[in-house]
Amino acid sequence: MEENRQQQRISDLGEFGLIRHLTDDLVMKNRSTVKGIGDDAAVLDYASTRVVVSTDMLAEGVHFNLVYTPLKHLGYKAAVVNFSDIYAMNAQPRQLLVSMALSGKYTLAMVDEIYAGIRLACERYGVDLAGGDTTSSYTGMTLCFTAIGEGSDEKITYRSGAGLHDLICVSGDLGGAYLGLQLLERERMLFEREKGMQPVLEGYDYVLERQLKPEARKDIIALLDELGIKPTAMIDISDGLSSELLHICGQSGKGCAVYADKIPVHDETRRAAREFDIEPLIAALNGGEDYELLFTVPVAQYDKIGNRPEISIIGHITDSSEGVRMISPQGEEIPLQAQGWNALR
Amino acid sequence: MEENRQQQRISDLGEFGLIRHLTDDLVMKNRSTVKGIGDDAAVLDYASTRVVVSTDMLAEGVHFNLVYTPLKHLGYKAAVVNFSDIYAMNAQPRQLLVSMALSGKYTLAMVDEIYAGIRLACERYGVDLAGGDTTSSYTGMTLCFTAIGEGSDEKITYRSGAGLHDLICVSGDLGGAYLGLQLLERERMLFEREKGMQPVLEGYDYVLERQLKPEARKDIIALLDELGIKPTAMIDISDGLSSELLHICGQSGKGCAVYADKIPVHDETRRAAREFDIEPLIAALNGGEDYELLFTVPVAQYDKIGNRPEISIIGHITDSSEGVRMISPQGEEIPLQAQGWNALR
Q1: CB contact, 8 Å: A57 with chain B?
Q2: Which residues of chain A does B132 touch, with a Cβ-Cβ cutoff of 8 Å?
Q3: Alpha carbon distance B126, B146 (integer Å)
Q4: Checking phi first, is residue A170 left (phi over 0); if not, alpha (psi -120 to 50) or beta?
Q5: Out of A13, A36, A59, closest to residue B137 by CB
Q6: Residues facing residue B143 across a β-bridge
Q7: What is d(CA B152, CA B155) in angstroms, rounded to the nearest whole number?
Q8: How far is the C-alpha of A259 from the C-alpha of B148, rounded, in Å?
Q9: What is the arrangement of strands in the sheet containing A49-59, beginning at the earlier edge strand?
Q10: Total structural domains in chain B?
Q11: Could you tell me which residues come within 8 angstroms of residue A203 by beta carbon, excluding any fewer than 6 positions away?
């Protein structure tokens, strides 16, 4: 048995399994650690204001392919993805720490491009680039970004607060980033087969932008504040809707029913999905990287949020015994599973 | 010219040059950003308590060699090195975020070993492991650790506060970690030449421990507090004494004179240096990775600190026009240069 465990491959556990395995029995000892591992960001209390921290690591070839990712976009996306984690706590990002390990193939001009993207993101989101580390690697590039934000105790929103009958809401639309990736991958493969061939990407601006230059939903956080709504639970959609619903339901000890025909998908995403013979709904459920916000609000707040074009109500929270389900237009119940993009496979 | 710059290699700039190049004109905009890039850690103000944050990236083959680095030691060292940055701000580490990118060769048992070291360090230093990210890489392992600490506005110590005539102090002794590395490298090369040969490392426990399992000087921070001393400037010695003196003098707009015969070197470090035909002083000046604290205090505090066995007074701060110099026992003046370990070369 022990022998067996020694040889167990990390990929068998998956990312979440590995995190659970490594951190399950951790006990927080510092008064200032309000919330450690297990949400979009850690929450720290150094006085009346809460400090919210999140970190993300991106490895070349795993999280990005430089064949089709402009370096400036890469820097921008890596920063925005971190800010998204802070917004998903209903907090505001204020500082960013940028670490990068670079192999010898990178020139200064390339690093400048990455930084130009990082700085643009920081400027647009009002974040200070406040530190980091730069070092070399033997192979490729690894980026590690840490975003630090602030929030008030009353507003910070965890994954764990969804209540029975709460409405499940999602901002924007889903699946676009995944189709953007399919498109880029197809063109890359064609290019590799026939060198010099120019990629055909016209007419897909939206899904390409969703993949290459996503935005974090700062506007939704501002809107919720304006509407006087504090979500009961919130998460950003980085691994796909299914995976995030499972996180919210799992950590809230609840189940849910979401309606397939309520899940927002952009027209261009549908069109691209048809080209790739992919069910648009599958892209929305499992695609990931959309960086929209998934959140729950009490039913009583329906009036405030029911007819906002930027927010879709896709279902409601149920008792945990009912599981995490999607209801098809025909009334079929489909249990949702985390088939999202798993960086460890 | 532009063409030239486009092709400029990062290694020509060095790590500090690259950081300067990338961040020179950054302006901090958030009130909560007290100090951004340019010290051991960023300092954030979210109320009356200051939040101090530092991040470090370690790449396999560049910062560590798994042939002779036990994984548990690696985890321990990576954590401690981060804590050291927080202590160097005269602050207390409270949280640690751990990110790792792992290639397929890593088994769960290996990751467990790394985590065992991280957890031991967190326990010993009273730090909460509060978050992180775990993902895959195509090659080797990259670690990115972010330490978050707290300090009071009155106590936080920057690199930039050294005053004219201040005493220059260093904790512990220097050069040991470098000799430990030489020893391990020699045995690795012998082992590779004659497979199966067992390494001969007896009698070098001290320098090996300095390299493989360094400690951060939490005790010195506590001692300074107890003695009622707030250093005027402080930095931890990660790149070698020369490099750190240049940082303090550069950022304080001062020069310095340090006395060669005052620089503390352990007997075992001297003995190992003789074996390798290395001048012990060179190891102390340029070796790095000792994680001792280098700090300055006003002359008036000599009485408090002058006869502490754990602290050596090695020189004093001068006008910047006098440069950053070492004085030999014969009275020769040697200008110090940053020849420390440069991760980008």
Answers
A1: yes
A2: 37, 55
A3: 15
A4: beta
A5: A59
A6: B58, B100
A7: 5
A8: 42
A9: A33-35, A42-45, A49-59, A141-152, A92-102, A128-136
A10: 2
A11: none
Whether residues A148 and A172 fall in one domain: no
My answer on whether A187 and A326 are in the same domain is: yes
Note whether A143 and A178 are same-domain residues.
Answer: no
Tell whether A110 is covered by a domain: yes
Residue B95: closest CA among chain A residues belongs to which residue? A33
Going by C-alpha positions, the residue among B148, B138, B141 that lies closest to residue B114 is B141
Q: Is A42 helix (H, G, I), strand (E, B) or coil?
A: strand
Are B214 and B246 in the same domain?
yes
DSSP codes of every residue in B225-243:
HHHT---SEEEE-SS-HHH
Compute the nearest-CA separation of A122 from chain B (Å): 10
Output the tens digit of pLDDT for each of chain B's 345 residues: 344 555 566 556 555 555 566 556 656 565 555 554 554 445 556 676 778 888 888 888 888 888 888 999 999 999 999 999 999 989 888 888 888 888 878 777 788 888 889 889 988 998 887 777 777 787 788 999 999 888 887 888 988 899 999 999 999 999 999 999 999 988 888 877 876 666 667 789 999 999 999 999 999 999 999 999 999 999 999 989 999 999 899 989 999 999 999 999 999 999 999 999 999 999 999 998 999 999 999 999 999 999 899 999 999 999 999 999 999 999 999 999 766 444 333
Q: Which amino acid is at A16?
A: F
The reply to whether B80 and B221 lie within a common domain is no
Closest among A123, A119, A224 to A171, alpha carbons compared: A224
Longest pairwise C-alpha distance within chain A: 61
Domain assignment of residue A117, yes or no? yes
Q: By C-alpha distance, which of B65, B94, B68 is closest to B79?
A: B94
Q: Which residues of A touch B22 (CB under 8 A)?
A: 111-112, 115, 134
Q: In this structure, what CATH number is given to the domain that contains residue A48?
A: 3.30.1330.10
ipTM (interface pTM): 0.81
What is the number of other CB atoms lying within 10 angstroms of the CB of residue A107?
16
Chain B contact for A4, CB < 8 A? no
Q: Could you tell me if residue B137 is inside a domain?
A: yes
- Partner-chain contact B108 A26, CB within 8 Å: no
Domain carrying residue A148: 2-152
Other CB atoms within a 10 A radius of the CB of residue A137 amount to 28
Q: What is the pTM of this model?
A: 0.84
On whether residue A345 sits in a domain, the answer given is: no
B129 touches chain A (CB under 8 A): yes
Residue B148 sits in the same domain as residue B171: no
Please check whether residues A139 and A203 belong to one and the same domain. no
Q: Does B152 touch chain A (CB under 8 A)?
A: no
Shared-domain flag, residues B301 and B173: yes
The CATH number that applies at residue A235 is 3.90.650.10
- Which residues in chain B are contacts of A55 at CB distance < 8 A? 97, 99, 131-133, 144, 146
